[in-house]
User: What shape does this take?
Amino acid sequence: MRTLVKAAVLTIASLSAVLPSMTPAHADDWRYRRHHHRDNDGLALGAVGLATGLIVGGAIASAPRYRNEERVYIDPPADDYYEPAPVYRRPRPVVVNNYGSLEPWSPSWYRYCSNRYRSFDSRTGTFVGYDGRSYFCNAG
Assistant: This one.
């Protein structure tokens, strides 16, 4: 809003300087001016208008758009902080299908796990996965 007001004031000031010279207040005959171009008023008015436009345009363009104020962080008072409410979610149901699975520590379970996993340890019933962790063998 300030830049709009500044631009309006500069425009009015520049027009008040240029307009009096543009009015036909001369006592000369227009025919005499038309045929004899002694007074180059048009050229002078053009130069004055160009200079005024450059000055006003430069003033508008050089106005800072944003203030360079230093931002300061202020800690909120301790009374304003509320701990967020806990979110309770129902656990997902786990479906365990044991139909047709082998009983752990049975001979068929040992056979299945040793054939399936190369790193199967028969003492602990675990194997080492690709991530380097040990997993219990679930045959099924």
Observations:
- The mean pLDDT is 76.
- The longest helix spans residues 41-62.
